[in-house]
Amino acid sequence: MLSNRQMNVINILSDSNNWMTGKEIAKILNVTDRTIRSDIESINKYYDCQLIESNRRAGYHIDDILLAKQDIEVKEIVPQTSHERCIWIIQELLFRNKEINLIQLQERVFVSGYSIDNDLKKIRKIIENYPSLKLIRSKNHIRLEGEEIDKRKLYKYLLTEETHGNFMNLNSIADFWTDFDLLAIKDIFEEVCEKYDYKIRETTFPMIMMHAGVAIERIINHNYLTSDIDDRLVESTEYHVSYEFFERVSKLLDIEIVDDEVKRFSLLLLGKSSGDYRKSNNNKEDVKRLIDRLIEQIAEYFGVDFSKDWDLKVGLETHIRSLIERQRNKVDVTNLYLKEIKRKYPLVFEMAIHSAKVIEKFTGYVIDEPEIEFLALHLGAAYERIDSVQKYRAVVIMPHNQMLSKPCIEKLNSRFGDRMEVVKMFTFFEESQVMEYEPNFIITTLQIKHNLDVPTIQISLFLNYEDESRIFQLLNQLDKERYSADFKILVKKMIRKDLFHVHETYESSDEIINKLCNELVEKDLADERYKEDVFRRESMSATSFSYGFAVPHSMEVSTKESCLSVMVLDKPVKWGDFDVRLIILLGIRDTDNSLLKIFFEWLSNTVTDSKKLARLLAVNNYEDFMKEVLE
What we know:
Keywords: Activator, Repeat, Transcription, Transcription regulation. InterPro entries: BglG_antiterminators, HTH_11, Mga_HTH, PRD, PRD_sf, PTrfase/Anion_transptr, PTS_EIIA_type-2_dom, WH-like_DNA-bd_sf. Residues 176-279, 282-389 form the PRD domain. Residues 493-631 form the PTS EIIA type-2 domain. It holds the Pfam family PTS_EIIA_2. Residues 272-282 have low confidence and may be disordered. The chain has 26 helices and 14 strands. Helix 5 (82-96) packs across helix 7, helix 14 packs across helix 15 (310-328) and helix 17 (346-363) packs across helix 18 (369-388). The protein is α/β, with parallel strands linked by helices and 631 residues long. A hairpin with a 2-residue loop joins strand 4 and strand 5. It folds into 5 domains: 4-69, Arc Repressor Mutant, subunit A (Orthogonal Bundle); 82-146, Arc Repressor Mutant, subunit A (Orthogonal Bundle), CATH 1.10.10.10; 170-388, PRD domain (PTS-regulatory domain, PRD, Orthogonal Bundle), CATH 1.10.1790.10; 392-475, Response regulator (Rossmann fold), CATH 3.40.50; 495-630, 3-Layer(aba) Sandwich (Mannitol-specific EII, Chain A), CATH 3.40.930.10. It has helices at residues 4-16, 22-29, 33-47, 64-69, 82-96, 102-109, 113-126, 148-163, 170-174, 182-195, 205-220, 237-253, 259-270, 284-302, 310-328, 340-344, 346-363, 369-388, 402-416, 431-435, 465-494, 509-522, 528-540, 594-607, 610-617, 622-630; strands at 52-55, 59-62, 99-101, 134-138, 141-145, 392-397, 420-426, 441-444, 456-458, 500-504, 544-545, 549-550, 563-575, 578-587.
């Protein structure tokens, strides 16, 4: 028999999904490297196979296929960094246990009491912004106390941090599959769509690629299904797009063309009209009721509202129909490609677990972990869509009857509905009931004094031009604050020290573009096509501004990673019609187009602030520049 520690070695390597050195494993288990080497020898000998591979440089790696064949029961995911442990502990306290035994916690996550104490300090720091929340320690137990509204806020904050830039980022999604390149698959799909002049909304594109990845993974692993789908589907444009897409993929990956997967993918593309072609035994209305119930449960339990996300509903309908057929036909889905979701996105995974319970209750089928991971893909992308297009939330205070207040609310929605949402109207003001709706601002027809840190605008019942102007100004100020916060995150990530140049001297704009583009090519951040595209854009119209700076950029070709190259000249160079000293080469990866709005919002604010621009031109090093930008 293997010891508990040896089973923990298997557990840690299974969770990691990457090579780990003996020192890394030894540190987690608080033993020596030599002990780990001995344990791994014993494990391989016990199972009579090379279950754990070794490499002098990389360390150790577990063979997932052999692990599955040995039918070894792997325990729960083990958080391996301090940040992962903090999220894990908060999640446990929010959803599973009212309190945690700290002695048992050390055994579960393989760390010392000292490490746990440090984690608890970090958790207290995280919850500082939620006034009612307190982490209470009593002897060897901890618990999280506070109001439910603050617990919901904490969860949504952590969820936003977890998903941000991942589930709408095809590069991140592509990492889930290791047997094929999802980005190459994406290129094929785009080529086919262009051939048929078939348009796909940008917000749905990541979800469609997820489904493509899942379908290809099923075909590779020979997990075929048959279903009764109306043959009239083959007459649609969507079917032709789907068939040619899978035909090209089959040649690239040397796999079969499975007609059922072609039809399913067609149904996904058809979206709302897809029901006309279905003859599935899964009752359409039943599946829709299941999805509505699932979304209601997520809103009730997690405080996240997906009820208006049509893309999620379409994706879940296709996925759940397929899931039910797999369950009915007892077809298992492999989790070799998606196992990192559980580690990297535990909060999204928690929503998926809750959703699986709803499906189980509704259908009677037990949903296993690989199926839950697929659900997490949908929910992660949906949450990121909410976060990326979130409107400002307004609470309205109007002590008037409905006949008088309704026209005012309708006018607010008509005038500002694209930027704000009236989440609740009250006839009187009371702090706790207002804050329950987490407003970004309050609109009132009364003069109200309160202690809330929420902007408040007093308007007339008939919403005149002055009222509209004040609301516009507030929305613009909120935009400025939002973009300022987003820009600081963006800048820290994109302006790299090795792409910053100060006290430079050049004779022409062409020399500077060559220098900055060549640098990106040398660092494998872009290719020659990007450089050619930057020059093509420049030839159409110089990217310089009268304020003394230029922002050269490409028109069509993206960089491999989003980055900003910065150069500050000692002497100005003639750039188009203007003398320029500050140059920012803009390189945006095709999956990061949302960053453009943030960048140009910052740019427009900077060029109208002459003092700010002067300070940027006076910097002597990277640190000074970053300080000025982030100020």
